Amino acid sequence: MIKFKHKKIWIPSLIVGILLLIFVVWGSFHYSKKQVIKEYVAAYQKSGDTFDNIKGYVVWADNNEKVTTDEAKYATFKKLSKAEANQLSQDLQDAGASDNQYVKKVGQRFLIFPNYRIALKPLNLTIKTNVNKVDILLNKKKVAVSDSEDYSVTLERLPIADYTASISGKYNGKPVELSKAYDGENNLLDLSVSFKSFKVTSNLTDGELYFDDTCVGTLENGEYDVSDYPLTDSAKAYVKKKFSDGDLKSQKQALSSISDGDTVALDAEGLLDNETAGKVLVSAFDQMILYLNAGQDSSTVATIFEDGANNEFYKGLKESITAKMQTDSRKATSLTVPNIVLTNLTQVGKESYVAGFTATYDFHYDKSTDTEKQSSGDVIQTLEGKLTLKKSGASYLVANSGQRSITVTGEDNQIKVDSVMPEAMLGTWKVDDKSDTSFTFDADGTITQSTKNNKRQTKVTGVEDKGNNIYHYVYGDDTDTSAFVVSGLGGVGVKYTFGIKIDGDKLRLVVWQANKDDDFDYSKPMLGSTLSKK
How many other C-beta atoms can be found within 10 angstroms of the C-beta atom of residue 5? Predict the structure, then answer.
């Protein structure tokens, strides 16, 4: 019997011992520092309100009390990515009491296991401003409204995190939007402002002026006047222009370096200027001339045009000269482009511009192109257009997309037959004192006198300048001279020769008379009827 009772006592004790051992092993794992870190980081990765997910794990480092939602309302807690979670796990494993957050034992569980929590050091921040009646914000959450020009408010027991203090409101009708980030060292966030007036200029001519993240206004014609504006000396001024393909910013300048009345140039670097754009424009027309002279595209066409010979603007240039140089029945002998002018340059993208231009084509025609009349001269075309320039490495190309056009706006035909008479004579003229009589002078020397009932025609081979705008006709002995005068001339032993006087916008018929055996005295012309241009 004694032996039997001893066995009954031993078996329950063994079971209890095993259970206690299992409990100790389980508790040592479940309440370990490593496991608490794992659970805390896992909570940080859950969806929903991040602070609600982690607040059961966090306490204040100085008093071990739980961090409340109200105390953490200004801090921003965001769901962690996998990489961020791994980094936080490692940081907490290595962290000690000198760090902003670390694992701390705050008591016991079941008398034998440590109660670990994530300890957060409390932070006190003071926000100061000298602007009255503006909202004081921390991380965009309203803290208070300033009530004096020497106002400060202190926020106690904040979790150490990223904080940005700001003020928002108006001063003398001007918007005040200033901010300052907590740098991890200085607990005073001073949002005091100074008031300055100065001028800003920029090559981003219609960009927006910024003081840090605050947009102050939009430049007009590259200028903006800042007048009695509330500023923080720590802020920096710059100009930004927004484009569909990105933003372009000027260099920045600290407001502390700007004095009242200054003019500050905030220019962006690397912008396309008119001189460079003009060179690209001229090079584009040069490629057209190279094509015309060689009968094929130049080997350097891709250095000027995006996509080389497949560039649509380049094709348009070649088409603009096709008719007169290749397909017209009378083809021009040569082409020059004596005038190319950049009329405007507008930035339309971060690295692209639209250039407006005018140009002049001079198509020359020599006599070999007109075997019948032997005419020669030039046809002058004026053109206007647009093209898009885009940056490519360190240079600019004519883009194969964007705005492009080329249009003929005018044409001046200066082709003429070589005239044997002064140009001022050419055309049809009526006789002032004989309304039914007119004279027509043609470039080839033909002179036609027309009356109501009759027409007489003759031809001279040239004219001789006798001075005082008087010209003597040169003609053969068999020439019908009756066409030179309005009425017949007569006399015995005399002879006549004929000419014309250009008298301003009038013509005067001229006759010289001499004895049959004498030479003509061309200094003594006899002026006849006056002619007016029809």
Answer: 9
Q: Do 287 and 366 fall within a single domain?
A: yes
Q: Are residues 428 and 505 both part of a single domain?
A: yes
User: Is residue 523 domain-shared with residue 446, that is, in the same domain?
Assistant: yes
Judged on CB neighbours under 10 Å (0-12, 13-18, 19+), 151 is buried
Do both 395 and 408 map to the same domain?
yes
Are the beta carbons of 14 and 7 closer than 8 angstroms? no
pLDDT tens digits, 200-231: 999 999 999 999 888 889 999 999 999 988 87
Give the number of domains in the chain: 5
Encode pLDDT of 411-452 as tens digits.
999 998 888 999 999 999 999 999 899 999 998 899 999 998
Indicate the residue among 242, 265, 288 that finishes a domain. Answer: 265
Q: What is the CATH number of the domain that holds 366?
A: 3.10.450
What the block records as the tokens of 313 is: 């603007």
Of 189, 162, 166, the closest CA to residue 178 belongs to 166
The reply to whether the predicted model has a pTM over 0.70 is no
More confident residue, 509 or 12: 509
Distance CA 161, CA 184 (A): 8
Strand pairing partners for 263?
Answer: 199
